[in-house]
Every structure is written in structure tokens, then in C-alpha cells.
Amino acid sequence: MEFLLGLFLALLLWRDSRFQRVCLALLLIPVTVTPIVVGLVFRALLASGVGGALLLITAFMAVGSLKAPELSTVGLTYVVKSVLGTFLGDTLLVCVTIAIFVCCLANQTGAVRMIFAMARDNGFPGSHRLARISERDKTPVVPVVSVAVIAVLVLLFNIRQPQVFLVVTSTTVVLALIAYVLVVGPFALLRIRGKWVHTEKGYFSLGRAGLAVSIAAFIWGVGMIVNIAWPRRAIYNPVAPFRWWLQWGGILFPAICLTIAFLVYWFVQRHKIGILAEHATDAPPADTEIVGVE
Known about the structure:
This protein is an all-alpha fold. About 70% of the residues lie in helices and about 0% in strands.
């Protein structure tokens, strides 16, 4: 269901020629964001949100008992098989597996791009190796292999302790929200202090609503971090064996990651940040235009 719904929404958006041109514009010149781009992004977010909400509502309406213990351990898999039966349930779950596999590939690809981008700016120890492009494959091989190895290690650690997967999936959301808050927070603070520099004409701006939107976004981000990271056994360790580090995983894992990142930055990379010489290039002219983009 998720796979088919996502495919339908993607095709619905992609058939829009404006959406295609906007994607091209964002790939080539990310700073030239116009109201039409924001409108399309909000439309995509709204479609995803409505689709997800309908999926959850349908699942809760279809399940035999809302008090079934399988809802907290197996989740939608239990709902699908209990309602549709073994054959149809397994068939649909195969589609879901394909969708999850594609999402995992997209996430790993995003991680590779992020590692390469940060290494290009000398943000990691050994950035020269991480940012090196293979002459034969024209690909940053080391980031690709590193992300794959890390993913395999997580799966190996998950053997005979499947609840580790719950911790990993939840804490990755927490880390993403922390990165979001670290951007939105200073942005809101600058606006409160009146130090925000208005953008030039031709660029999208929130105008007077910018302060309220940034404060609301910051409060929402902090609230979501607290909500997801709160050490609840029902979320992080619902079944035996019960481990204290699993229940507190939503706090421990992000805290460990952020501490290591801070120590590496402060004591190793703080005075080394800057584009590597082999990747330095002249900035494109400001009046660059993209053919076909409105």
C-alpha cells in the first residue's frame, strides 16, 4: 500500500512540467528558490502527510483489537496479515519490502553525498581520501564503501537483538531533528535580535512572517526531539530481554554521536575547515540562467 501510494504521488507530481523544471533549477542553482518552488514542495509534503494519515487511520479501523500486543511489536505487518490473510498479506508485504529497499538505497545515497560534501570542505579527518574521485568510475569510492560497511555493521549488531533496529530508526530521526533545530534556532535568534539581513530582490522571502515561522519551527523541532527521545520502554524495549541501554537509546545514541562529533571538530578539524585545493573552483556568474525554468 505504501509502495503503490508513494509511486502514485511521485508520478502525479513528476508529470507536472513545472515540477520537472523546478527540480532542474534546484539541482543547478539551489539558492534561486521562488514561490512556485515552495508551492510545489508544500504540495508534495501535504500529499505525503495526508497519505500517511489515511494509511494509519485505515490500519486502526481495520485491526480487530486496538489492544492487541502485536501492534506495539509487529506493527502494520500484523494488521496487514490479520486482515488480508496469509497470501494477500505476504504479497502486499513484498511490495512494502521493495519500497523499503528503495528508501534504504536513497538514504545511503544521501549519506554518501553528505560525506563527500563535508570531506570536500575538509570537515573530516582524512578528508583528502574521502573526497577523492575515482578516475575510472567517476565516483567517491571511499564514502560509498564506508556507508555500506556501517549499514552492514548495524545489521550484524541487530542479530538476536532485533530491538536494536527500533533504537536505530528512532535515534536517526532524533539526529535529523537536532540538525534541523541547530539551523532553525540561530535563524530565529538572528531575527529576534534584528540582525537578519534581508535577501536581495528576486529571491523567496517569508517577509514579516519569517520571525513567527522560525520560532514555531524551532519549538516544533525541540518538542519532537523530546517526544521521540523520551526513554519509554513501550517504544524502545517493548519485549524481553529488557536492557536499560535500549530503553535509553533515544538519548544515549544521539548524545554519544554529538559528543564524538564535537570532540573531533574542536580538537582536530576546527582550524582546518575549507574547500580542499583539488576541489576549489571559481564561482559561477551571478546572472546564470536555466533554460526552461520559469
